[in-house]
């Protein structure tokens, strides 16, 4: 029988839905069998995304394992920025360990309602993209 892990929040408290948690805990449960795993980075990539044609932004998430529980570290959404030599840069960054939310057009967001609204909008879009199957998912373990 596999254990289901609940994702914990420390540093920030955002309105993370159960549906989002179900998608992520399914990926984390696969990694939980090895007790030496102290963190997991999950990358979601649209193989067709480019600066020229657009597509679905790459997303990177990191979760830290403490005493057999998983904690949010960060969720970062990247996009190409720049016209002549576009580069992938952070567009939105939710960082629980750093206690901040960042958007490239606004900078740091310190008002809780704005953080919650941005998370809810971002999360609902991300779940839709997952349902559409646009991402290739890779999971990288960090061991002790």
From TrEMBL:
This is DUF2787 family protein. InterPro entries: DUF2787 (IPR021248). It comes from the Bacteria. Gene3D superfamilies: Protein of unknown function DUF2787 (3.10.450.430). The lineage of its organism: Bacteria, Pseudomonadati, Pseudomonadota, Gammaproteobacteria, Enterobacterales. It comes from Scandinavium lactucae.
């Amino acid at each position: 029988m596999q254990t289901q892990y609940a994702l914990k929040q420390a540093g920030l408290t955002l309105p993370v839905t159960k549906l989002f948690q179900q998608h992520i805990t399914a990926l984390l449960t696969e990694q939980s069998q090895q007790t030496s795993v102290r963190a997991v980075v999950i990358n979601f990539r649209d193989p067709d995304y480019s600066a020229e044609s657009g597509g679905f932004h790459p997303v990177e998430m990191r979760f830290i394992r403490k005493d057999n529980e998983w904690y949010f570290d960060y969720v970062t959404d990247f996009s190409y920025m720049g016209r002549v030599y576009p580069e992938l840069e952070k567009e939105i960054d939710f960082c629980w360990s750093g206690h901040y939310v960042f958007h490239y057009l606004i900078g740091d967001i310190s008002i809780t309602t704005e953080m919650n609204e941005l998370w809810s909008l971002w999360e609902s879009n991300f779940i839709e993209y997952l349902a559409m199957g646009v991402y290739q998912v890779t999971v990288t373990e960090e061991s002790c």
